[in-house]
Amino acid sequence: VFTRREQTMAFIDKVLGWDRAGMPSQFVLASRSDPKTVIGYCGFFHHPDEGIEDVEIGYRLDPTFWNRGFATEAAIAVRDHGFGALGLARVVSLVHPDNARSRRVAERNGMTIEREITFKGFPTLLYAVTRDRWSLRG
To answer: pTM of this prediction?
Structure first.
């Protein structure tokens, strides 16, 4: 059993490893009204060890900032960066079927459910959007 600190350090090490390898990774989310206040993170995750070759858009926010549109705004910006600046062909989001809030974020990000998978032992909906479909947006 890992402590919260050990879990956090492992996550930071993973993200820094992606950065060092030149892979897209995470962005810190800060409050516009107080830019020194970190409210969470959003960005790209990589799961080749779990059989997922596509880059995932994922996020986590402090619950104090839920239901304000921050996750949607961040996920859309990350998607646009991935398709625009990085030239990704496709991105996915992995969402537990019972997580209605994250499902709405994925849908607002132009994603649709492609299939249900098991991810790290849990039922998971794989949402996806391609650059071609994104480029057709109004």
So the answer is: 0.88
- Return d(Cα 12, Cα 16) in angstroms, integer: 6
Name which of 35, 26, 40 is nearest 68 in CA terms.
40
Bridge partners (DSSP) listed for residue 112: 128
> Do residues 91 and 55 make contact, with C-beta atoms less than 8 angstroms apart?
yes
Q: How confident is the model at residue 70 (pLDDT cuts 50, 70, 90)?
A: very high
Amino acid at 116: E
Taking CA atoms, 61 is separated from 5, 32, 112, 125, in Å, by: 17, 15, 22, 20
Note the pLDDT tens digit of each residue in 98-121: 999 999 999 999 999 999 999 999
- DSSP 8-state code for residue 34: -
